[in-house]
Amino acid sequence: MRLTQQELAELSGVSVRLLRELEAGRANPGMRQLAKIATVLHLTLTLAPKADETASR
Predict the structure, then answer these.
(1) From the first residue on, what is the mean pLDDT of each consecutive set of 10 residues in the chain (57 residues)?
(2) Which end of the chain is more exposed for a tag (fewer CB within 10 A), N or C?
(3) What gap in Å lies between CA 6 and CA 55, rounded to an integer?
């Protein structure tokens, strides 16, 4: 699927600014925003627990 940022923003109901920040690695979106984007892109979100850094020591 080839979408512009503008098209993805319109289809997912998020701002183009958010999409730009996400692509640049400067955004911390909420689950609702991620779910909206994932739905448009036909992706599935999977949550995994954060690895315990002390467990490997």
Answers:
(1) 94 97 94 96 92 68
(2) C
(3) 43
Instruction: Please name the residue ranges forming H helices in 1-57.
Output: 5-12, 16-24, 31-40
For residue 55, what is the DSSP state? G
| Alpha-carbon 7 to chain mean position | 15
Q: Which residues of 37-57 are buried (b: 16+ CB within 10 A; e: fewer)?
A: beebeeeeeeeeeeeeeeeee
Tokens of 49: 């627990």
pTM (2 decimals)? Answer: 0.78
Let me know: does 36 contact 18? Beta carbons within 8 Å.
Answer: no
